[in-house]
Amino acid sequence: MSLQEWWHLFAGQISQTDGLQWVAVSLGVAEVLLARTNRIALYPAGIAGTLLSIYILYSAGLFAECLLNGYYVVMSIYGWWYWIRKRNEPPVKASYCTAQEWTVVAGIVLGGFGLLAILLKYFTPSTVPLWDAWVSATAWAGMWLLAKRKIENWILLNLSNAFAIPLLLYKQLPLYAALTLFLFIIAIQGYFEWRKIIRAEHAVPGATTA
Is 209 within a domain? Predict the structure, then answer.
């Protein structure tokens, strides 16, 4: 399919998008922008948008994505509480994964993919069980790394995003595909920003860089 045909398909899907998707995606964009400015309002915006997304994704038959978004809700509630309780304490420093942590990542991706694929294929009417399972399993691994402040979280999250964008277009959810593309770009920026932070924290005082 040519780029022009893709554009016509995307434009056609946008024109048929209902108001609920616009609201949910707008809240998702607001959450990201509030997070970049370190505002606590990111949590209520994110929770509201994610709850709407669960309903929309369930209606589209993306059941693993629904579970993933359910996890987002739980973690957002926890994050909101933790922010209020620990907001004046220094955050955990960003760092690179160890070999042991990469083993855990592999276990999350492979184990999560296998379990979700079986559940989706045999216990749901999903038409894309392997695709849906892969997107969610890689996102689970990325979120685990994000919680541990590991820079590789951006790589895993973008691996998930790269597969999620065509999946969402296939399921005629163009606004979610556009939001995921936006998150893909943010994740690239996040990786390079964290790399600068890690280098600065490990720089030898008085040393010069080439």
Answer: no
Number of domains the chain is built from: 1
Identify the burial level of 23 via C-beta atoms within 10 angstroms of its C-beta, where 0-12 means exposed, 13-18 middle and 19 or more buried: middle
Domain that holds residue 193: 3-202
Q: Tokens in use for 78?
A: 């926890």
Q: Which of 116, 157, 154, 152 is nearest to 134 (CA)?
A: 116
Handedness of CA 67, 43, 27, 94 (dihedral sign): negative
Radius of gyration of the CA atoms of the chain, in A: 18
pLDDT of residue 19: 81
At 84, give phi and psi (nearest 5°): -65, -40
Sign (positive or negative) of CA dihedral 10, 177, 46, 36: negative
- Taking only the tens place, the pLDDT of each residue in 24-43 is 889 988 888 887 666 788 88
Are the C-beta atoms of residues 109 and 138 closer than 8 Å to each other?
yes
CA distance 104 to 7: 40
Decide if 130 contacts 115 (C-beta within 8 A): no
- Roughly how many angstroms between the first and final C-alpha of the chain, as a whole number? 46
Q: Positive or negative, the Cα torsion across 187, 44, 67, 171? A: negative
Kindly state the tokens that stand for 162: 């790269």
Residue 48 lies in a domain: yes
Residue 31 and residue 42 in contact, taking contact as beta carbons nearer than 8 Å: yes
